[in-house]
Specification:
- By secondary structure, this protein is an alpha/beta fold.
- It has one domain: Alpha/Beta hydrolase fold, catalytic domain (Rossmann fold).
- The protein is built from 12 helices and 8 strands.
- An 8-stranded mixed β-sheet has the order 1-2-4-3-5-6-7-8, sandwiched between helices.
- The chain is globular and about 50 Å long.
- The two termini are about 30 Å apart.
- InterPro entries: AB_hydrolase_1, AB_hydrolase_fold, AB_hydrolase_sf, Epox_hydrolase-like.
- It holds the Pfam family Abhydrolase_1.
- It comes from Amycolatopsis viridis.
Amino acid sequence: MSSIEIGEITAGYDDKGSGPALVLVHGHPFDRSMWEPQLDHFSARGWRVVAPDLRGYGETTVVPGKTPLATFARDLAALLDRLTVDRFVLAGLSMGGQIVMECHRLFPDRIRGLVLADTSPRAETAAGRRNRTEMADRLLREGLRPYADEVLTKMVAPANVEAMPDVAEHVHRMMRGTSPEGAAAALRGRAERPDYVPTLAGVGVPTLVVVGDQDEYTPVAEAEFLHASVPGSELAVIAGAAHLPNLERTAEFDAVLADFLARLPQES
């Protein structure tokens, strides 16, 4: 584990392996440890895997207030600059997928391929904006523990909570360990997120859309919409998983991702 100063924050990150770069962006309210299986798997198979903690999460500086997706994206670009990573495959789950779409909007020339897991490209609805703002206030009042208890069986499919207690505990630990100020700032930023659908028609790199077949937050229908919005994209539905297929069905997720990566055009 390493850390580095980028602008006003100190960012925690993992940087493992060598070869072409694969950058993994975690979701909310998690940290980079959600990518541990992929960090180990792909770094052992010819990839340099970079997994950062986003601002306000894990070991990265908490900045209270509001964190727009563009701020997360610029933090990521600055980190990769410091690590001398110019071109990369960019993968994100849930909020991480929305940060990936923002990165593509801001600096598409740096991206070799996109992986969008359990995420939505649409702008937030009026009801969604209210819900996120109210949730931000709630997390500041209560902390993350009550929320973590409440949503565990949506993040991880109920059958997997029973069958995979180590995974369930890892997910619960990430959630309850997240800074309320960091989580609230991200929620306020996401409440104002733009509509990425118009930009997706211009995606010119290979794109993989992944979703768990039991995901309640971003159901299969939303992944199908995202897939239809990105020309030439691929869709993989992971059976037996909810919102975190990379942890609930690691072997299946890794196989789909490995196949996608193996077919990317070689860099000149």
